[in-house]
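Customer escalation, tier 2.

The customer says the design service returned an amino acid string that "doesn't look like it belongs to this structure." They asked us to rerun it and document both sides in this ticket. The original structure tokens are below, unchanged.
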């Protein structure tokens, strides 16, 4: 029995409300088990949290939402491609 399955066993120390919360959280981890490989990702040097992605989103928003600027989808797509090329130093993306 996995540790998650052990948590699903009723416990006198938990109220029914707490047991319901535990069951909900255990269900989340069981559902997403195939996506949660933190140790392997950490060994590969990947960031653990989403902070880097959120920071990049905020940075791009700040640069592309200047005062008086509006972008249609085609123009925004081209600008985002340039941002990716610049950040990744990968000019091959310009030709796709």
């Amino acid at each position: 029995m996995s540790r998650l399955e052990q948590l699903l066993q009723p416990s006198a120390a938990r109220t029914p409300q707490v047991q319901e919360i535990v069951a909900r959280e255990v269900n989340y981890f069981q559902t997403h088990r195939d996506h949660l490989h933190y140790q392997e990702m950490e060994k590969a040097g990947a960031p653990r949290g989403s902070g880097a992605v959120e920071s990049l989103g905020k940075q791009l928003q700040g640069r592309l939402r200047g005062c008086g600027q509006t972008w249609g989808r085609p123009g925004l797509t081209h600008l985002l491609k340039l941002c990716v090329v610049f950040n990744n130093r990968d000019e091959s993306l310009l030709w796709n």
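Tier 2 assessment: The sequence is consistent with the input. The first helix runs from residue 3 to 8. The chain has a mean pLDDT of 85. Sent an explanation to the customer and offered a walkthrough call.
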